[in-house]
Design brief:
This protein has 285 residues and is an all-alpha fold. It is built from eleven helices and two strands, in the order αααββαααααααα. Keywords: Antiport, Cell membrane, Ion transport, Membrane, Sodium, Sodium transport, Transmembrane, Transmembrane helix, Transport.
Amino acid sequence: MGARPRWGRRLRRLVHDEAAGGVVLLVAAVAALVWANSPAAAGYEALWHLRLTVGPGPVSVTEDLRHWVNDGLMALFFFVVGLEVKRELVVGELRDRRAAALPALAALGGVVLPAVLFLAVVGGGPEARGWGVPLATDIAFAVGVLALLGSRVPAGVKLFLLSVAIVDDIIAVGVIAVAYTDALEPGWLLAAAGGLIAVAVMRRSGVGPVAAYVPVGVFVWYATLHSGLHATIAGVVLGLMTPARPVGGRAVLDDLQRRLHPITAFAVVPLFALANAGVDLRGGA
């Protein structure tokens, strides 16, 4: 009987061990590379191009599996990232606005410099339109590498890099929306904004149960997906709207982080790596 509780404690420690999540991410990325460069490479692409429909009739969404990972599951990851940043903004190191300005300025530099270098190398012509390509930081892999290093990386460094990555991604999403999206859908943008307003009103009205917010959050994601913006931005915004201080004696943000972090670290981010790290390195062989 004593062995079972010990194994349970060990499993809980493993699930909440950041380094373990980084190892799973690394294994998934290596597996994707090996698979995509093996004789079974066609199966790799076929798997991620399978199309899946979710939802009833007129409100259903049909995407291939890779897009479901990138647009759907990764919204949950960005929600958790938003929770972490919100906690630090309210009760953590970023509550000092001067401290918060540093990663924001670093992210701005990380956006401007790659674009300038790209234009300097490419020059004019139609190729210059690709200036936005090098802007974004791959936040999922950045977090995974930090997790892999575990306690060897100071908490302040992790927070700084996380803040830089998320601001960088938000700027990149804005650039893509303005410069590369053929047509934003104002109606869906207004619908997403309406959903966010509904969340704010529910908070002000004292609506406590997290389950009450889930349908509204899903609607915000759905509207953002159809608006022409990257759907994961909905996760960031909803995370930042979550109260960092206890509500009715319950630490909602900490509870959500504790429940969702293992899911994102051991399932969502490794699936993202498996779906996107399979680059064909064979040079057309």
